[in-house]
Each structure stands twice: as structure tokens, then as C-alpha cells.
Sequence to fold (440 residues):
Amino acid sequence: MKPSTSIQDYLKRIYELTENGQPASTNDLARELNVKPASVTGMIQKLAAEKPALVEYQKHQGVTLTAAGKRAALEVIRHHRLIETWLVQTLGYSWDEVHEEAERLEHVISEDFERRIAAALGHPLRDPHGELIPTADLKMPLDESTPLSALRKNQSGKILCIKSADADLLRHLNELGLTPNTSIEVVDYSPFDHNLTVTAGKRTSVLGLNITGRIFVEKK
Amino acid sequence: MKPSTSIQDYLKRIYELTENGQPASTNDLARELNVKPASVTGMIQKLAAEKPALVEYQKHQGVTLTAAGKRAALEVIRHHRLIETWLVQTLGYSWDEVHEEAERLEHVISEDFERRIAAALGHPLRDPHGELIPTADLKMPLDESTPLSALRKNQSGKILCIKSADADLLRHLNELGLTPNTSIEVVDYSPFDHNLTVTAGKRTSVLGLNITGRIFVEKK
DNA sequence: AAAATGATTTAGGTAAGACTAAATTTTACA
DNA sequence: TGTAAAATTTAGTCTTACCTAAATCATTTT
Ligand SMILES: [Mn+2]
Ligand SMILES: [Mn+2]
Ligand SMILES: [Mn+2]
Ligand SMILES: [Mn+2]
Fold:
């Protein structure tokens, strides 16, 4: 049985929050899902009681995904990222407009629709933000990127991915020329505020940690 | 506030059932919506109590749409038919595959998405089944078609529209060459069973009322 | 006109998924 | 090591949209 829209969103957020290896906390999930912590506890208990269980859960210890939960999460993430790519390629959406639309479409498309857009797009590896698209058999490709915030003076790389759904930030980065596939060089580092001065194309920008932590690069 | 998926489906069905000028009955709605009559009564009472009311309702007398209800219904129908057209044009769906997918997508696309596919398709007037697409300002164009069942021996016309969501029937008609824009001639009429013998392209078929009542033509 | 039939409505429930308020557990730190 | 703060869970409600069973209404048939 296909999980409900709500459940799909919970699993997706749990996947994202546990990518660092730590269990996802009730509060973090509540914030990401725009829901109260009490509601999260209720849903988590339900997901843990499903057969097969979709999450591993111990009171007060946070949640992680089981194999079944991870599969369901990757299914939604694949939908989301293929749809974003599709909207940009065929309907002229810009990268700051696609997320909201994909957030709703991801839950209602058929597996047939998924196959058709994947084929029409030539089985893309990344979405418009550079995020990796899970494969058709629901494996997440290995992510070999480094956060820009880890680079120091005179190091350089190529932008692979912007990890943000904030439309304003995405528009801002677009204006600074900081988009996937752009080559970038760090020309200065300020140790106290962690600001990086970077050059991309002809432009030079000073970026705070809130930005450099969301830009992921392939180190040269 | 945008109506829920359920409400949108109710309004759409009420629109279809009242196209003949008669109010829609509780039982007919229940059948179309795959829901029990008691549930229909409950929902109808809710829709009549909305401000502004979406339906006009008197106990035991059936239900009709108010202006607000009709607008909401045409919005969903426009989505549905544009999506069907788009799936056929850009993803190679066949006309018997699109309905199910559109039935889910129609409720979640944005007005922006609607505008984009309408523009990308060149503002089409009809969907893949030949059904008229409501305009952007939510008017249903005048339907000047005649049911094939009203034609008699030696009369001819051009197929405008197939009014059916039955995938098997659509595939069958496809094989008989009975698709929109095809010219058709009635070569025989059997008064007792209302069968029509028709020629379309090189093929001749004998069609019962269940089919001829769903094929709509422009009389020559 | 009464009775039977069919359509519709009412009454009372269920399930999902949210919420608030109160209780409890964990963690932080004085 | 005890307390205060923060995080989490529990308990009890609410809304939406469905269900079944029983009651009522409307239409037909006798
Ligand atoms: Mn996104
Ligand atoms: Mn979503
Ligand atoms: Mn359709
Ligand atoms: Mn629908």
C-alpha cells in the first residue's frame, strides 16, 4: 500500500535529517514539517508500528529509517528531483520556482509517469539545484562533494550542488553567478566570522557561513 | 480558500450530471464518486452551507451548482483537460492512459503550472478525447456537437469528441479508427436495437447505442 | 387511497492527521 | 548533585470524509 502524502513527507524529512548519521529529533522534524512536536510523536509511533516498520524509534532517542522506510523516502525524493528537472527543462521554470510545485506533484504521479519523464530527460543524475537523483532501483548515488565552507584561501573547485529550498537565497545566488557547474576560487578567508571571499566567473563575493555551508563543490 | 480534493471531485461530477439541465440526484452522484449515498447527502449539505454556497440544494430534489460552484468545477475541468492534452503531446501517453493520471494531478497543480502548459500547448480548444477545454476565464465554450446516435442512414459527419473515460472502450474505438477529426458516414440503421453501421476511413463497424451515444459529431 | 418500492436523509461510528495543555523525561549547569 | 530549562510524550479534542443501519420521504402500483 502506498503511504499517504503525510507519511511520505515525514519519511523524506527523516531521510534528510539522518543523512549525517544522527537520528532525527522530534523537534527538528516538527520544525521541518511545520507541525507541532506532539503531532510528530504521534506519527512516529504509528510509523514504528507499521508492518513492516518504516522507522526505528526509542522514546526520547529520536528516529531513523528502516530499510523499508528508506526505500519509501528515496521513492519520493526521486519523484521530487525528477519533477524539478522536468519543470525546468520543459516548462521554463527557474530553479527558485520549482520546489513548491514539486512538493505537491511528488505524491500523486504514477510510476509510469516517473519512468516517462526520466526517459524524456535522458535519465539525469542531478536536479536543477545539483542534488543527486536516486536511481530507478532506489539507490542514492555516492555524494563526493565538499561544503564550500571547508575551503580556504587559494583553494578552488566546481560547484556541484546548492542545498537549499529558499527561493530568495536561490535567486540571490543566481545573481552572483553561483550555480552548479560554475568554477569557483576562494581568494580570502576571514577566520573570525568564517566569511569566504570567492570569485566565480567575473564576479567576486563575500559569503557568510549560512551560504558557504549550503554550497557544495568538487574540490580541484 | 481552495476546495479540498474531495470537494473538487464532487463539484466536477455535479457539473457533468447537470449538463442536461436536470439537477443531479444523490444516487447518481454516489455511483459516479464511488461513495455511498449517505456520504453524498452529508457532503451536499456541507457544500450548500458554505459561504458563498457552492450548490443549490433542496431535500429530495437533487442538487445544482451555484455560480461559485460552477466556477470551481470549471477550474478543475480545465486542469484535467489541459493535463490530458499535455501528457499526450509531451510524454507520449495514449488517450486511454491519460485519464487516471489527470484525475490525480488536476487537484495539485498551481495556476502558474496551468498557464505554462496552456501556453506551451498553444491554448488548445479540446483535449485528446475531443472534449472542450474551459477557457482561462472559466467559460465553457458552446458545444455544437450531435450524438452519433441521432444520425440516420446516409447522414455523415466528423467526429468531434468521445465522451468516455473507459480505457477499454477507447482502445476499441482506436482500433476501429473512430477518433476525433475522423469523417464518418452512417450506411445503415437498425430501428429495433438502434444499431448503426458506420464507415470511417476504410473500415465499417456496427455500433450499439452504448457506443453511438458516446461519440459526438459535427453534422455535415 | 393504501401499500410497496426505491431514493434519500438521519444518527451514530471510524480513521487520519492535526492541535492544545499537561505530564514526564532528559540535559545542562550552578 | 540538585534544580531549571528544554525536549518529548501523553491525554484529550477537532475536522474531514468516509461508513452502516435505521428512519423517512416520494413515487408507483395495486
Ligand atoms: Mn526541491
Ligand atoms: Mn511533499
Ligand atoms: Mn478525462
Ligand atoms: Mn479527481
Q: What stands out?
A: Residues 4, 6, 35-36, 38-39, 42-43, 46, 59-60 of chain A lie near DNA strand C (CB under 10 Å from a C1').
